[in-house]
Write a structure and sequence with these properties.
9 helices; three-stranded antiparallel sheet; 7 strands
């Protein structure tokens, strides 16, 4: 039993060290803003706030050492082999869509919704940019109803979810659609689609 605890303790220590080693630090200079630092470091300002426990970005003090997470991969390899780089504007609207569609879901459910959008960009069956996928006619209720948030601020864990999806996480296994079986107005149609996975309130399918 003692050996088991020793092995477990060693594993947890190794995991903690590995996680810490994946982070770098940045010393805030006079005149720096969190937004400017995020652009230079290639990460979102929301993630910087979250990982550094910053409540008010306007009170950032010179000399403060910030933890900087690894850069997010903003590139997608499409099915045809072409490389597509997501703009900050597209990432922003993706965060807002994930919030509108999955704000009541856990992190896994939010990652899954973001992954569906990115899977569509990769597929030759859909438009080949994030912006065009999101604005494709008749696809996403928040776009149709005009209920998309005007800002990606105060979107909770949705920025983290999008970053994880951009870095390759896809808990759906490649899904191209998602729907809530309890509220969907097209239940007969969805019955024809095999469910790849149920995450939270959503079914994910091809």
């Amino acid at each position: 039993m003692r050996n088991i605890f020793i092995i477990l303790g060693t594993f947890l220590l190794f995991f903690s060290i590995s996680k810490a080693n994946s982070l770098t630090t940045y010393k805030v200079k006079p005149g720096d803003t969190l937004s400017e630092i995020s652009v230079r470091q290639g990460v979102s300002w929301q993630e910087l706030m979250e990982i550094n426990k910053i409540d008010d970005p306007d009170k950032l003090m010179a000399g403060t050492k910030l933890l900087i997470p690894p850069k997010v991969n903003n590139r997608i390899i499409r099915d045809d082999g072409s490389v597509y780089e997501i703009s900050e504007k597209e990432k922003d609207i993706l965060i807002r869509l994930v919030y509108a569609e999955a704000r009541g879901e856990g992190l896994e459910g939010q990652i899954a919704v973001a992954a569906v959008i990115l899977n569509r960009v990769r597929s030759d069956k859909f438009p080949n940019t994030v912006w065009d996928v999101i604005h494709q006619q008749g696809q996403f209720t928040p776009i149709q109803r005009g209920t998309l948030p005007s800002s990606s601020k105060n979107t909770g864990t949705c920025t983290n979810a999008v970053d994880k999806a951009l870095n390759g996480e896809d808990p759906t296994g490649g899904a191209l659609f998602f729907y809530n079986p309890e509220t969907s107005q097209a239940k007969d149609y969805w019955k024809t689609k095999p469910v790849l996975k149920r995450i939270g309130n959503h079914n994910f399918t091809l």
